[in-house]
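Step 1: inspect the first sequence and its tokens.
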Amino acid sequence: MPTLSEYTNVYNTALIVIEQKGYQAWYDKQAEMFCAEKDGWDFMAESPVGLLGLISIFEFKKPEKYGEYWWRERGRDLYGELPRKPKPYRSVLERDED
């Protein structure tokens, strides 16, 4: 079991984080998508967790103006090369309490 995974019980926390970051958030019923906006930059995703992920990309990239593919990060194709198993690690769920 992971420490945290995307599930509906995480949605409210994601929306609270989005609002605390200064974004307005709403649900577009017609599009059936979650939306957020700040300073004219707007985002849309299928879940609040996905929306928070898009906002994280925006905050990582820090674009000064809109341009085609402003969000793209150059580098190797991790999506196509992602390993099937992690390197060995010990989950915090398995660690003894100090």
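Step 2: inspect the second sequence and its tokens, then contrast the two.
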Amino acid sequence: MVNVERVSGRRAFKEFVLYPYRKYASDPTWVAPLRVSQFELLDPKKNPFFEHARATLYLAREGGKVVGRIALLDDDLHNETHPEDDLAFFGFFEAENEAVAAALFAAVEAEARSLGRRALRGPVNPTMNDGAGFQLDAFDELPYVMMPQSPAKYLAWATAAGYAKVKDLYAFHLVNEGRVPERVKRLVDRARERYRPVIRTADMKRIHQEVKVLQRIHHAAWEKNWGNVPFTNSEIEHLANDLKMIVDPEMALFLEYKGEPVAVCIAVPDLNQVLARFDGRLITGILPLLRRKRIVNRARLMILGVLPEHRNRGFDLVLIDEVVRRSKAVGIEEGECGWTLEDNHAINRAIEAVGGKRYKTYRLVQKEL
């Protein structure tokens, strides 16, 4: 019999965090994230997400053995930003079988109802920026850094529990030739000649000031995107600390027009190529050293945004052209662009124009309560 219990105490919390490491220990396509990062992700004292949200963690046991987990996430800032939603989220979902999945979904649904929420959406871990959606395809591909991974059966189990698609997220694969296609290069050259934009790399010695620029662009550029929630000041400071560890300045670019930053592009080395070797136990300070030794030859384009009043000027293509050339120079041979919203046609077309091929889809589902 499946018993679902709320996580209480340090021992159960540790079981919750470490369960996937046991579950996927023999799966060659699963990349174990840094264990310390997973503990911090769910620690209200270390993750500023919890300044405006709460999480209730659940473990499923059968015969005393952990056979699944799930989190109920109630985000005040999301519901303030999107008052029409009035929903809670689920995330960190893992289950051994469909019966366990059904019991876990029932637990978070009951809590969401008790909070007065009208719907439950997920998975998010714990936000859209931390990994979202059930994976639909490309299960034999190693995931890129900070992207989710899940078996095909999870979506089937969620569907059986009454969840339906609310939005698909896309990831595109790109072979890095060191240059964009000629037809795109003509558009890039035209934009450079007409607008004279200036490209500069992020100043890592001023990273906390730089992320403030990112925050301003992100707030305006993503404001009308489905499901977007603006970064708080605490969250942007937290992001600065994360970026210091993984970013290569040659792939963190700002585009300035008439002396003002109006667009941003950040690609990060795919440190999953390193993490895959260490079962999540790698000491974080070693990551930059390993990156410099060229163990990593993949990168993920994770942020690309242009202020609304400066769109349709080709600035997105200028940034892509720049990051393609710069990343090739530091040894990046291929990459992933994503995630993007399925209906963000402008950015999806731009990625396809430079040779990106859509190869992964992640699905967010929702259930009315």
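Step 3: confirm your contrast with the notes below.
The chain has a mean pLDDT of 94. The first helix runs from residue 10 to 23.
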